[in-house]
TrEMBL record:
<comment type="similarity">
    <text>Belongs to the sigma-70 factor family. ECF subfamily.</text>
</comment>
<dbReference type="InterPro" id="IPR014325">
    <property type="entry name" value="RNA_pol_sigma-E_actinobac"/>
</dbReference>
<keyword id="KW-0731">Sigma factor</keyword>
<dbReference type="InterPro" id="IPR036388">
    <property type="entry name" value="WH-like_DNA-bd_sf"/>
</dbReference>
<keyword id="KW-0804">Transcription</keyword>
<dbReference type="Pfam" id="PF04542">
    <property type="entry name" value="Sigma70_r2"/>
</dbReference>
<dbReference type="InterPro" id="IPR013324">
    <property type="entry name" value="RNA_pol_sigma_r3/r4-like"/>
</dbReference>
<protein>
    <submittedName>
        <fullName>SigE family RNA polymerase sigma factor</fullName>
    </submittedName>
</protein>
<dbReference type="InterPro" id="IPR039425">
    <property type="entry name" value="RNA_pol_sigma-70-like"/>
</dbReference>
<feature type="domain" description="RNA polymerase sigma factor 70 region 4 type 2">
    <location>
        <begin position="104"/>
        <end position="155"/>
    </location>
</feature>
<dbReference type="InterPro" id="IPR007627">
    <property type="entry name" value="RNA_pol_sigma70_r2"/>
</dbReference>
<feature type="domain" description="RNA polymerase sigma-70 region 2">
    <location>
        <begin position="14"/>
        <end position="78"/>
    </location>
</feature>
<dbReference type="InterPro" id="IPR013249">
    <property type="entry name" value="RNA_pol_sigma70_r4_t2"/>
</dbReference>
<dbReference type="Pfam" id="PF08281">
    <property type="entry name" value="Sigma70_r4_2"/>
</dbReference>
<dbReference type="InterPro" id="IPR014284">
    <property type="entry name" value="RNA_pol_sigma-70_dom"/>
</dbReference>
<dbReference type="InterPro" id="IPR013325">
    <property type="entry name" value="RNA_pol_sigma_r2"/>
</dbReference>
<keyword id="KW-0238">DNA-binding</keyword>
Length: 172
């Protein structure tokens, strides 16, 4: 890689690492696993930087790589054999106005299968369209819609009914 391309990569990573880390945390539900996921993603981006630099939307490319690495790791035996425990919340965590509701939503999100969790995170956190989510997950728009429907139904069952859906961040 040329010095100029290497510098462009470093600038991109410096600028976008916090966004990738937050997205990875929502997928992994653990800061340590999220950091590993981001690191694996950044390695893949570096190895293909010429292609990434030529992409019309670098963020979409990086997001797609991150989600595919996440799903690939969940399919491997490693994810079933190794369980990492987060001893405490990272200092970079954002305080929520209602910590109990935030914990309930994160717990319900963590209980979803990896593909459904990825769909929910991409659709509602990253605010991607059905087609953009389908492209990131390398599946059809119909699959995204059905996975979204199943995931939202599971979240509704898992979350307490004592407060309106709008306050829980889950669309009805």
């Amino acid at each position: 890689m040329t010095d100029q391309a290497d510098q462009a990569y470093r600038e991109y990573v410096t600028d976008r690492q916090p966004m990738l880390r937050r997205l990875a945390y929502l997928l992994c539900q653990n800061w340590h696993s999220a950091d590993d996921l981001v690191q694996n993603t950044l390695v893949k981006l570096y190895l293909r930087w010429e292609r990434v630099a030529a992409a019309t939307d670098r963020d979409a490319y990086a997001r797609t790589v991150l989600v595919r690495v996440f799903l690939s790791e969940r399919r491997s035996g490693w994810a079933r054999r190794v369980v990492l425990v987060d001893a405490g919340q990272d200092a970079t965590g954002v305080s929520d106005p209602d910590p109990a509701a935030a914990v309930a939503v994160r717990t319900a999100l963590a209980a979803l299968p990896p593909r459904q969790r990825a769909v929910i995170v991409l659709r509602f956190y990253s605010d991607l369209s059905v087609d953009q989510t389908a492209e990131a997950l390398n599946c059809s728009a119909g699959t995204v819609k059905s996975q979204t429907s199943r995931a939202l139904a599971a979240l509704r069952r898992a979350l307490p009914d004592d407060e309106p859906a709008a306050h829980r961040g889950v669309p009805r």
